[in-house]
Structure formats: structure tokens, C-alpha cells
Amino acid sequence: MCGIVGYVGKRPAQSILLDGLKKLEYRGYDSAGIVVCDKGQLHLEKTLGKIENLERAIKNKNWQSTLGMAHTRWATHGKPSDRNAHPHTDCKGELVIVHNGIIENYQKLKQALQKKGHQFKSETDSEVIAHLIEENYRGDLGAAVRQSLSRLEGTYGIAVIHVKHPDVLIAARKGSPVVIGLKENEHFVASDVTPLVSHTKDVIYLEDGEIAEITPSSYHISTINNEKREPAINHVEWEIAEAEKQGYDHYMLKEIFEEPDAARNAMLGRVIPEEGLAHLGGLNMNDDEMREVKRIVIVACGSALYAARAGEYMIEKYADIPVEVEYASEFRYRDPVIDQGTLVFAISQSGETADTLAAMKEAKRKGARVLGIVNVVGSTIARESDGGTYIHAGPEIGVASTKAFTGQLTILAILALQFGRLKNMPFSTGQKLVKELKTIPQKIESILEQDKAIKQLAESYAQYKNFFFLGRGANYPIALEGALKLKEVSYVHAEAYPMAELKHGPIALIDRNFPSFVIVPKDSYYEKNISNVQEIKARDGRMIAVATKGDSNISNLVDEVIYVPKTLDLLIPLLTVVPLHLFAYHLAVALKRDVDKPRNLAKSVTVE
Ligand code: F6R
Asked: Is 42 helix (H, G, I), strand (E, B) or coil?
């Protein structure tokens, strides 16, 4: 969703900010804006649509100012437009803000400020912040920001500039991430580390309720009540090249090709083949505490939720612990039962998903220990959980989650092993599982070798308007993931069902123009799945099967087959998902969709 980048230093800010905005594009946005402060004057430009529009609008400006900030907006209050784009100014045009998040009490504040004569120019909730700071400003910008923030309800990550403070940038956070980048004689502000890593690896993650006042040579972090803070400086491990396309046409394709590494990195140092064991260090639980877990609840959204659902099968089977997977967005509304033996996991690529965060807070409120399974290091979920594990998939830039999904599945398999071995799982099963897990990255690589064939297949199916995705057991969540991926990047309608559910209604839709993806590996459900495939065939349904290498029978029943290598039943999802990711990608490209930034979507969904 919205992105912020700010700079104060010795170099002209304009190009640093534009470059930063481009790095934030992946978050999803509908308009963009930039402001620099020069010799007591603000220079501001805002445009609807892509950052190129903004770039074109300021091409000849050549501002030399060394203080500025920029923003990408994803509309919540007020439609996407130049006027509603950030930055927003006060009445005098002296003060300017950018804001991520939602100000819930903005209408009340706006009315009060309008009564005092403030003129609003946009329909946004954010603009109220600029006017509130203007109202409280008496020469001390920090004090005015503090006073104003104490009146806000909702969430914010903000940055503020005032013409009377030409080398000061103020940033603050409550519920929406803000990172400060540190470098000699220059400092940065951003909503995540991606625009920072090409300048510096040393960052401070602001905590909720903290304010940073930064100049080219200093930074001062304090609370909203003006208590000084000594923040930890973190070193970002990501390399800038990891966040670049490296010759691929799209980030999504690059990230699908990184799925073998995602599985590898998630396992690194965490499985012990000779002992058939796994150990996720960051869980902050000793073996006795883990043995006492009687029930696991997993909260997540979107793809992360589907990974959790596949993990549910793994944990229940290997660790014998009942698992419930809950839509994070619904968790709070059903008064969930959390008792002593319940352990909660929150799974999130970004670590910033507002619904997941809210579910996590609800679980904590009820006394649960909440562990995070997160990709983005230093993200809110990672910091606010009681422990957890990083998946180490590296930056995921494409809006559609792919390699993070594989990383999440791998961690869930490792968790199943770790819990299982602490309970009843025999040594031999543990060893077999570790041995097989270790082969997964290579097996994914062998699936990726079929990329060309899958591309051709996707192109030949690009004219269809509807698809079913069908799977059984742990492959039902994979069907859900396949359908979600196709919908979000190609805008083609797709629905997923458990294989056997089709005959309970949806089969009425089957004809030659309604193809089905059937996930039918040679697992313990194979025969049952084949009966369902026969039912579709009997109704002249068109089918693409994802099947196990060597299964020659299947090609007699379906129109197309994509083969995946053989593995243990509960690890099959790590393989079957890969062709579905590739199919969605290639079909979207064939339809000329904006694959990395699908319409209406945002990478990090920071509103509930
Ligand atoms: C699907 C997708 C979304 C996310 C969901 C959760 O491709 O990207 O469904 O999976 O918004 O996001 P995170 O994992 O960042 O919490």
C-alpha cells in the first residue's frame, strides 16, 4: 500500500526520492507525489497514475534542494486523483506531510479545524494532520508534531517538513512502519527498507509511539511524550541486487524461479539429517513447553492462509496436534477460544498485514503465546510476536506472493517435524522426512525446467474465462492458491474446490469451455481422485492435470498433463504449487496484464 521515502543530506533530494519511489512501486499505488524544500519555499508536484507521470512533470525542474520527501498513494479516503495524492500542505503552504495509514477520527478533527478557518483541499483523512500541526505550531516543529499526534486515532506512519526548518525531517509511527536509514552526513526515512538498501544497510525501525527528528548529521528518537529513546541500529542483510529483476521480464517470474532457494534458505541450519530432527531457534520455547502444546491456531491472509492450510495437514499428521487455520480478518469477530495449551502462529510475508496484526493482538489479549512466521526482517509482526522464525526468502517485490509461499510451506513442514519428534514421531520417520525435505529444492528446479511448456500451455488457455482448481487433502489448499494466483494476476475467474465437492453442485458448470486444473499426484488419494476426474470427463470437461512423473494412465483421462517428481504425500504441495504459479504468470502475460502490479492490489495490506 502507500509508500514513503524522505531524504535530508548534502545531495540534491529530487533524484534520490524518485529512485526511492520506484523501489516502492511494488507496494501498489494509484498516484504519487514529491516535495522538496528550498530556500524557504516548498516545491511540490503530485500526479495521478504511474511514477513516470510524476517524473515527466518534474523533468525540467532540476531542484537542488537537499531536503524532501515523496509518496505513493493507494486510495482509501477519496478517489485516486492529483488532488488527493500526497504530500498535503497546511493553509499557508509552509508545512507538508506524507501519511500511510488511516486517521479514524479525521472527520471530527476536520470539522473543528474548519471552524477555526482551515481550508482543506482534498477528500483525504491524511490532510487533517497537516492542518493540525499548523494549528499547534509555535516555532518548535517537534513539539507541534507531538501535540498533534496525541489527538489522532487510527494508524499512521508520517513524515513532516516545514520551510522554517530547512534541514529537519520529522517522522513518526503508530501502526504503520517507518524506517530511518543512517549514513554519514545524510539520513533517510522510508516505509520499508527497499528504497534504503542502495544507500545504507544501517537502519532504525521506529516503534509505535516514537518520533524521529533527523538532520543531515544527527538523529534524535523520542516518544510522543518527549522521552528520549536509545534505539537499536539494525543491519539489513538484503543486497540491492536481490530486489532487482536480474534479466527476468517480471519480478513474479524471477521470484518463481527463486522458489528452490526459498525452500533451501528456509531449511538452512534448521534440520539435522543424521538425527532426523529440526530446530527453529527463534521460537523461544523449550522442549517441555513445546510438548505441552495441545492445539495450534494459525492466523493469516491470502496466500499465507493457504500455506497455513497445507501446514495444517502436515502438523496434524506428523505432530498429532490439532490445528485450526483462521482468516486473520475474521479472528476477532468470532470470540476465539484460547486456552492454556493453545499456541498461535501468525504467518505473513510482509509482516505488516493489518488484519494479521489485529488477529495477533487479539490472541495476545486473550493470553496466547503468539509466534510469527515472517519474511520481512524487522517488520511489525516479527517484532511484536513472542518469538518465531524468518523464512529468509529475500525481498519479494511482485505483488503476488510466490517464493514466500514456498518458504512458508517449508517452515510449516519443519515445524511439523520439530513438534512431531518431541512427541511420538519415530526416529526413522524423522530421518525420512528430513532426507526428503532436502531433495525438495532440486525437485522444484526440475519443475521449473518445464517453464517453456507451461508457457505454451498457458497461452493456449488464455481465451478461457473461467477455471476450476481441484485438489484433495493438502493439495486442496494448493488448488486455492492456484485459483487465487490466476485471479489476481490475470483477472480471469477461477474457483477452487476440494476435489470431491465438485459433484455437490459446481459440476453443473462443467462443459468444454470451463477447464479444470486437477491436482492428482500419486498419493494415498490417487484412486479417489481418479474417480472424480472420470466424473468431469464424463461431462466432457476439459482438464489439465498436475500429476506424478511416471503416471502414464492420467494422460488418457485429461487434455494436458504437467508432471512433478515423486515425494512424500505431505510434501507434495511444495511441488504441485510451482506449475500453478507458472501457469498464472504466463496466462497473465499472454493477456498483457500488469503482472507485478495487478490492478487494485497492494503488496503490503496495511489497512483492515
Ligand atoms: C496473494 C497475496 C496476498 C497475500 C496476503 C497476505 O498472492 O500476495 O493474498 O498473501 O495479502 O500478505 P502477507 O503475507 O504479507 O501477510
From this structure: strand
How many A from CA of 303 to the centre of ligand 1?
Answer: 5
CB 496 within 8 A of CB 518: no
pLDDT in tens, 357-402: 999 999 999 999 999 999 998 889 998 999 999 999 998 999 999 9
Whether 2 is catalytic is: yes
Tell me the average pLDDT of the chain. 94
pLDDT of residue 33: 97
Query: Which phi-psi region, left, alpha or beta, contains residue 139 (left: φ > 0; alpha: ψ -120 to 50)?
Result: left
Residues 6+ apart with CB under 8 A from 581: 256, 259, 402, 405, 482, 485
What is the whole-number distance in angstroms between the Cα of residue 444 and the centre of ligand 1? Answer: 22
User: What are the DSSP calls for 317-350, one per residue?
Assistant: HHH---EEEEEHHHHGGG-----TTEEEEEEESS
In this prediction, residue 600 carries a pLDDT of: 85
Q: What are 520-547's pLDDT values in tens digits?
A: 999 999 999 999 999 999 999 999 999 9
Residue 555's nearest CA partner among 515, 589, 604, 520 is: 520
Which domains does the chain possess?
Answer: 3-236 (3.60.20.10), 241-447 (3.40.50.10490), 450-608 (3.40.50.10490)
User: Which residue, judged by its Cα, is nearest atom 16 of ligand 1?
Assistant: 348
* Full-model pTM: 0.84
Q: How confident is the model at residue 78 (pLDDT cuts 50, 70, 90)?
A: confident
387 CA to centre of ligand 1 in angstroms: 21
Report whether pLDDT(241) > 80.
no
Verify whether ligand 1 is closer than 6 Å to residue 605 (CB atom): yes
In the predicted model, is pLDDT for residue 242 greater than 80? no
Is the dihedral angle over the CA atoms 539, 545, 547, 553 positive or is it negative? positive
262 lines ligand 1 (CB under 6 A): no
Instruction: Among 379, 597, 605, name the best residue to mutate to test ligand 1's pocket (greatest count of ligand atoms within 8 A of Cβ).
Output: 605
What is the C-alpha to C-alpha distance for residues 39 and 41, in angstroms, rounded to an integer?
A: 6
Ligand 1: which residue has its CA nearest to atom 5? 302
**Residue 379 in contact with ligand 1 by CB distance below 6 A:** no
395 lines ligand 1 (CB under 6 A): no
With 80 as the cut, is the pLDDT of residue 606 above it?
Answer: no
Query: Closest ligand 1 atom, CA of 404?
Result: 14
Task: Find the Cα–Cα–Cα–Cα dihedral 192, 193, 194, 197, rounded to 10°.
Answer: 160
Q: Nearest CA to 543 among 575, 567, 513, 573?
A: 513
The three-point CA angle 6-11-14 to 5° equals 55
